[in-house]
Fold:
Amino acid sequence: MSSDKSKSLADGDLQVIPAPERPKPALPPLPPAVGSKALVEYAPPAPVEEEEDLEVKLRRIIDHVPVRVSNTSGSSAGSGSGDFHQYRQMRRKEQDRLVRMDVDYQRRKEMTEFNMRREERMKAAEERTTKKRLKRQKKKQRKKEKKMRVNAGGEKEQQKEESSDDDGDSENGEDVVVN
Structure:
């Protein structure tokens, strides 16, 4: 039997050996290509979600936005008398398109800067408002506590006066008899 093994290995046949267990990757590997005799299969790196979104957007743009090619020059050598005017018209349109893109970019940039500054101002105003609100509440609480202390002190004094009145002393010096 061992002679059969050495004979088959000598002929160039491949031998199957079980590989040790490996931890499974997050994504399952792609199945090997049919009829492939490669020892190592290429697996493209897993795309990041953000990159994948950009690729999807780019593909959609490429698929749905038509490519306009107008007034192309012919394949014949030399140019006619009208080609210069066509060139000037195409150049003017392209320059206008670039200017519009720049204006749009500047407008968007200004809007984002404005919104950032506005957000910062609103945040600062909210902080000031909160601080002042707390200050007002503390002042109101102190005033309330002071009023409670005065009332509590006043009630004690009134109780003392009432207790002295109950002893039978009157203001005019006569004794009052209590039954």
About this structure: The radius of gyration is 47 Å. The helical segments are 2-10, 49-64, 83-166. The chain has three helices and no strands. Residues 83 and 124 are 61 Å apart (CA to CA).
